[in-house]
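Take a record.
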Amino acid sequence: MGMDKKIEKKKWPLKRVIKWSAIGIFVLAVAYGLIFKTGGSVLNVRKERLTISTVVRGPFQEFIPILGNVLPQYYEYLSASLGGSVEKIFFRAGSKVKKGDKILKLSNTNLLMTMVNNEAQINRASNDLRATRLQLERNRLNLKRERAEAEYYLKRIKKDFERNKVLFDEGLISEKVYSDLRDECEYMKKRRQLTIESQEQDLKFSGVQVRQLGASVNQMQKNLELLKEQLENLTIRAPISGHLTSLEAEVGQSVPPGLKIGQIDDMEGFRVRAEIDEHYINRVEVGRKGAFDFDGGNYELIVKQVYPEVKEGKFAVDLEFPGEQAAGIRRGLTLHIRLQLSEMSEAVLLARGGFYQATGGNWVFVVNNSGSFAVKRSIRLGRQNPEYFEVLEGLDPGEKVITSSYENYGNIERLQF
């Protein structure tokens, strides 16, 4: 048996190596050219799983969706001007009431006792006033009598003095008699004057007393009227006609002064209160229009009041109906409102989609004319509404754009369908 012959490994000829090396270099060059031509990596995707939207030119209006809560146009709170205990309830929450209807009645023992005491004081003061007036009249009569007596005696003394003066001049009476008559006459004159002054002072003082007592009685009567009015206010009445939407009171409950215990809504009209993200606070102003759909119809609203205070990232606005209100609308309903932030204008539009979360609106994938692939392109977007973006640069009407999510595309430059 002969020995096995060792087989040597054949080496590739030089020409063969050169040939296959050239082929490899060619393939790499082609691949590099394709990559360079498309501007980056390529990803194969299934076209039917994408959302492709056509860029259009059309009317555009910027608006934001907000939620509004229907409130009554006018309402009044029920409050107790005086405290008390709930004695009787005439209407319950949910009832329709007319202006002036009794809603509930309070009782206040302290107020009642104050009024009773006030009435007693008025009676005493009135009696004192009558007695003082009577005494004043008596004094007036007495003073008139004293004055009349003084006048009478003065006249008698004057006559005696005049007769005796003639006799004295004729020397028929002594000087002492004449002097005594003269002194008595002067005395009666002074007495008469003092009587008159005394009368005037007494009458003046009595008049002041009467006026003071009269003023005191009048003031107490006014106070009594106020107390009666306060007692009347213990019966809380409806300030307007409408719907008693709330009443927080029960019989026996103690109600402090000023406490709001209920509300009556005027059912003749409504307004809408909405809260809006603070991002739009400089763009929402009085006069802005809004619209909403309700029960098969479309209705308009207008911003009437903007509340600039921001709470938890939101500010509030009130909207009103400029014309016909929606039939069947009720307090407490939530409305989905489209609030306009601009006027209607022509613009190049791109439908909204999930692409925006990944690109921020800076670029999109644009489909080629044949519809076989899409290439990444830089764009610039402007205003937006819940349906469209306004295209400022990078896209023309008629072009097709992938608007679905770009979440799994990473740094891909080209999508191959």
